[in-house]
Amino acid sequence: MRLLTAILMAATMWAGAAARAAAQAEDCVGAPEWEAAAGSNGVTLHSLEWSPFNRTEMGWETYLPLIQQELATRCAPSSAAFAGRLATFQARYNLPGTGLFDQATFQVFRGLWQERRPFVLARIRGECPDPPPIAQLGYLVHEEEHADRLTRLLRRDVLHAYRRMVAAARAEVPEIGADAELLQIFSGFRDPEADAARCARDRNCDGVARATCSAHRTGTAVDLYVGHLDGMGVDSLDASARRHQTQGPAYRWLVANAGRFGFVPYVFEPWHWEWTGVTPETADGSP
What we know:
With 287 residues, the protein is α+β, with helices and mostly antiparallel strands. The protein has two domains: 2-115, no CATH class; 132-283, 2-Layer Sandwich (Muramoyl-pentapeptide Carboxypeptidase, domain 2), CATH 3.30.1380.10. Helix content is 45%, strand content 10%. The strands form three sheets. It has a four-stranded antiparallel β-sheet. A hairpin with a 6-residue loop joins strand 1 and strand 2 (57-58). Helix 2 (35-47) crosses helix 4 (80-92). The relative contact order is 0.15. Mean pLDDT is 89; it is low at 12-16 and 19-23.
């Protein structure tokens, strides 16, 4: 429990520090020593052929918003400043401080993001969390549900945090405020028995996309509409569809601000967010 609390406190303080850094004018010129790495990063951003989740992808632009947030920078990958920050990150985690994006560096990022999800830590311990008592679940209202796939329930404390988060997003970003679909929920609490039946029916269990023990059983996981590519579903696993979602205003706002409300991402699915209950206020000891 102490380890989990420490990880979540670090995550929320990281979110606050990154937001403060982004609010300040940023010099993206950087030191000349990182110019070569910057040029390479600008190329691999779109051309790197790799399989970070056991399926081929081209480039790493999908993960750029989370990486920039982790590095507390808004500088482009093709800038020397970005390469310099990446080199500092690499050295901190005992990697060669080249300033070049590579798969080894991504695995460190991925590990950090996964450690911030309490559900993942429970699974590492061999636990499958029990679903909450029905009395702890609350109903979504019509405006909160996405028409693509109706859901009904979420843990009440999570629902309260979600509503605060959406209100802030709509107030802070005109594009989100003007589109009622953005940040609607298309999956919340899922009954474990029904989830297991669907998993068995579709024969797609314990993979990157679906698991016998799903985070949705906890009532703390939400799948949010963050846009979609024409002709593809709101939760399409296609690499181009996921990349499209991560470039939109809803996802970018979530990356920068969801931590204020206790939510952390699942890196592979831009729509999937989990509530930890830890916010910058609770992390610093405020009531």
